[in-house]
From TrEMBL:
Protein known as: peptidylprolyl isomerase
GO molecular function: Hsp90 protein binding; peptidyl-prolyl cis-trans isomerase activity
GO terms, biological process: piRNA processing; spermatogenesis
Reaction(s) the record says it catalyses: [protein]-peptidylproline (omega=180) = [protein]-peptidylproline (omega=0)
Organism superkingdom: Eukaryota
Keywords per UniProt: Isomerase, Repeat, Rotamase, TPR repeat
Domain PPIase FKBP-type: 58-147
InterPro entries: FKBP6/shu (IPR042282), PPIase_dom_sf (IPR046357), PPIase_FKBP_dom (IPR001179), TPR-like_helical_dom_sf (IPR011990)
EC number: 5.2.1.8
GO cellular component terms, semicolon-separated: cytoplasm
Length: 237
């Protein structure tokens, strides 16, 4: 072997040994992350702080997210290409345990990174062919906005009799939240979804047994903007 060949082999060996001593990408991330639950299963790095209260349980969230495997710069799932991502409800649309628990620590406008151990991600089996078994995954999440839909869920779970005897103020708050969902969808050009939310709000008001002229007036006042919203959605292509 020539002198140059020997030097090249030695350098390659030294580089290999240096790479073996260097922490893996995820281990480097771990050094700057906080432990969300205290068991090391969900680690978080706050990249950009948000404002206001954290995301509540049962919220509906508007967010951009991307999931990565270690040593890969290409996400195995992402919605960042969508200008207006679909609203996702915790407990229903967000099915990854670690992601749901991580969202509960976030605020509006926040951007954070999370490392999820397999028990909080895709488990021992993974999700072939994209996610190998026992995979630790990285998620980057940006909360664009959220709505607390827990009150809507509680109200719609009531019987009709219970809804009728609930304070009118509760009904009007629920209707306002449902209309807000419709407005978000309309602003995202998702007109069919917006129409469904507006119709749900109209039905909630229409099902109410009117107790007095004052209550009837309040219900009619709440119906007017919903009918206007529905009219505008009908004009959309």
């Amino acid at each position: 072997m020539s002198g140059n060949g020997l030097i090249h082999s030695i350098r390659r060996l030294l580089n290999t040994e240096e790479q073996l001593r260097r922490p893996s990408p995820f281990n480097e991330l771990r050094q700057q992350m906080s432990d969300v639950l205290g068991d090391g299963g969900i680690l978080k790095e706050l990249v950009q702080a948000g404002d206001g209260p954290p995301v509540p349980y049962n919220a509906s969230v508007l967010m951009h997210y991307s999931g990565y495997l270690e040593y890969s710069n290409v996400p195995f799932e992402t919605n960042t290409y969508q200008r207006f991502p679909k609203i996702m409800k915790l407990g229903r649309d967000v099915t990854l345990t670690g992601l749901e628990m991580g969202l509960l620590t976030m605020k509006k406008g926040e951007f954070s990174r999370f490392l999820f151990e397999p028990q909080y991600a895709y488990g021992d089996l993974g999700c072939p062919p994209l996610i190998p078994a026992f995979s630790v995954v990285l998620y980057e999440v940006h909360i664009l906005d959220f709505l607390d839909s827990g009150q809507v869920d509680d109200f719609t779970a009531m019987s009709q009799d219970e809804q009728n005897t609930a304070p009118l103020s509760n009904l009007l708050e629920v209707v306002n939240t449902v209309r807000s969902f419709g407005n978000r969808c309309f602003n995202q050009s998702r007109y069919h979804d917006a129409k469904d939310h507006y119709k749900e709000a109209v039905a909630l008001l229409g099902n109410r047994e009117k107790q007095s002229d004052v209550e009837r007036e309040k219900l009619n006042k709440a119906l007017l903007p919903l009918y206007l919203n529905l009219s505008v959605t009908e004009l959309q292509p």
